[in-house]
Design goal:
mainly alpha, 4 helices
Length: 89
Amino acid sequence: MGSLSLFIYLQMLDLLTTMLFLKMGLSESSWLVGALVHWSPILGVLMAKLVAIAIGCLAVRYHKDRVVKLANVGYSGVVAWNLLCMILK
């Protein structure tokens, strides 16, 4: 699986886990996504994911694959954190 494919997959997992996270009554820890979620939870998270995917595509387009690989590590941690918080609630 390529770095961009994995990045998009992790964005989808983050979207799903964040929506479950919010549905359980937990709060968003990112101030930017939190501001977007204030309008509408699904639209706020979806907008953030679309922007992230666009940035990931630009990084690949301009041969910044290392940035995408680093982001993959970060988003793996975010998804793991969401799952851990849901399990502990």
